[in-house]
TrEMBL record:
GO terms for cellular component: membrane. It comes from Yoonia algicola. This is Phosphate transporter. InterPro entries: Phos_transporter (IPR001204). Pfam families: PHO4 (PF01384). Signal peptide: none annotated. The keyword tRNA processing does not apply. It is a multi-pass membrane protein. GO terms for molecular function: phosphate transmembrane transporter activity.
Length: 495
């Protein structure tokens, strides 16, 4: 066989074979994302989840209720994959550190691993302690309330995905539980202090995430980007920044992602993070020095140094999300199964493995079928991201969760991640205006953009900003109203 010339296309195909697999995955995702095909596959998954429940529980009491709940749980899991996972993968894709196919492959593996390995946490009978269980009266009332909450939350997240607004699935479930509880037992059944803390998190989560992301971007700009010798500055600061990221994620996973495997308090989690972060910092010093050899002294060269940490952070965020939010989302399904089979709805319960499988597989299918839409919104349509900015968003997500845990505040991972994107974008706007004013003072006659042109060139798209904020504000009340309506209908038909 003749040797292939380097310019021969067959030679290039051989070299790019592994990358082509990701490209094929991306093409397949784009193909099945077409409305009829994607919807058909999603419907088939819901039907299979119901058939699996019928196979295992066909002879049990209230098997019809369990089958219907399994279908709703599958529908909810699909919507989590379509909407929530975009917050973890969007920044890495928007920064071109990952292709869409690569992001989907990583997210599918790590979301599923997080859900199945560390997601079997014991949860209360009603999500987040929103409703007093004894107020429900009977197991039948409780089952219809949880069924309504699950359906309302899934429907609302589905609608939000359709309008390209990343929303909190946990808040959707909380709103659904609250609405069904009010319809079943009145306003007195609601734990209003808990609801007040959740409402406060609507403001606290994105603001904290945005401020932390903006702070790290300021650090990177002032210590690396604006330095005369950018490569020398990067050799000093990038190992430290990667160490901070590694230590933060170690604390984050110890505190939130592995809580079902072992109980770790905040101080121990921080100590674990500090030790691991220090080790990573030391290890990365020679790695970054070698990686930076031969790089030109310009901003584009710096992107190379942040690529791998960004990919790793996306994977770790996905694992923690699978361990955390999936359990919250499929919690109502587990509650329905226990109440329907045993009539017990006052004690705590453990999420069964088959329920976690529905959650893990549903997230994977939802991400593959419908996820690219929201990934593009978070990654590139709110503001333009590069590896340095995306790094700041990912790091802020982990730090904000740790700070919120220390303060005892309930926060939304969705709000934190998207708030980080907003924070990076608005900081860039502020920094651009600051530099224009500084240049005008230095060179008075220098021609600058007119105010109208600067307004047009805003770095954060205001249309997406307003849509997302509006969706956040109305998530809990919208899910509550939908859930109350569904409960009244179900209770009327089968109560």
């Amino acid at each position: 066989m003749a040797n292939l010339d380097e310019g021969d296309p067959r030679h290039l195909d051989t070299l790019d074979r592994d990358l082509a697999r990701y490209s094929n995955l991306e093409l397949a995702t784009n193909y099945v994302s077409r409305p009829l095909i994607g919807t058909g596959i999603a419907f088939l998954f819901v039907v299979i989840a119901g058939l699996a429940a019928a196979l295992f529980f066909g002879q049990a009491n209230n098997s019809f209720i369990v089958i219907m709940a399994a279908c709703l749980g599958a529908y909810m899991a699909l919507n989590i994959g379509a909407n929530d996972v975009a917050n973890n993968m969007g920044p890495a894709v928007g920064a071109n550190a990952l292709t869409m196919g690569g992001a989907i492959a990583i997210a599918v593996v790590f979301e599923s691993a997080g859900a199945l390995i560390a997601g079997g946490d014991v949860v209360s009978t009603i999500a987040k302690g929103i409703i007093a269980p004894e107020s429900m009266g009977t197991a039948t009332t409780f089952v219809w309330a949880m069924m309504s909450a699950l359906l309302a939350a899934a429907f609302w997240v589905n609608l939000a995905t359709w309008v390209e607004a990343p929303v909190s699935t946990t808040h959707s479930v909380v709103g659904g539980v609250m609405g069904a509880g009010i319809a079943a037992a009145g306003f007195a059944a609601v734990n209003w202090p808990t609801m007040g803390a959740i409402a406060a998190s609507w403001v606290i989560s994105p603001l904290l995430g945005g401020l932390i992301a903006a702070g790290f971007l300021w650090l990177i700009k002032s210590r690396i980007i604006y330095q005369d010798d950018k490569i020398a500055a990067a050799r000093k600061w990038v190992p430290m920044l990667v160490g901070i990221m590694g230590g933060t994620f170690a604390s984050y996973l110890a505190l939130k992602g592995l809580k079902s495997l072992m109980k770790i308090d905040l101080s121990t989690a921080l100590l674990i993070g500090a030790v691991i972060g220090l080790i990573i910092w030391v290890v990365m010093i020679p790695v970054i020095r070698k990686q930076s050899e031969g790089l030109e002294n310009r901003n584009k060269s710096l992107k190379v140094l942040f690529g791998i940490p960004l990919v790793v952070s996306a994977a770790l965020l996905s694992f923690a999300h699978g361990a955390n939010d999936v359990a919250n989302a499929v919690g109502p399904l587990a509650a329905i199964v226990q109440a329907a089979q045993s009539g017990d709805f006052l004690t705590t319960f453990t999420i069964p493995l088959w329920v976690m499988f529905i959650g893990a597989l549903g997230i994977s299918f939802g991400l593959f079928l419908f996820g690219p839409k929201l990934i593009r919104v978070v990654g590139s349509q709110i503001t333009k991201l590069n590896p340095m900015r995306a790094y700041c968003v990912a790091l802020s997500a982990a730090i904000t969760v740790i700070v919120a845990s220390w303060l005892g505040l309930p926060v939304s991972s969705t709000h934190i991640a998207v708030g980080g994107v907003f924070g990076v974008g608005f900081f860039r706007e502020w920094d651009a205006e600051r530099r224009i004013k500084k240049a005008r003072m230095t060179i008075p006659n220098r021609v600058m953009y007119a105010p109208e042109e600067r307004q047009r060139r805003k770095l954060v798209r205001r249309s997406h900003f307003m849509t997302i904020i509006a969706a956040w504000i109305i998530t809990v009340p919208a899910a509550a109203i939908l859930s109350a309506c569904f409960f009244l209908a179900l209770n009327t038909l089968w109560g």
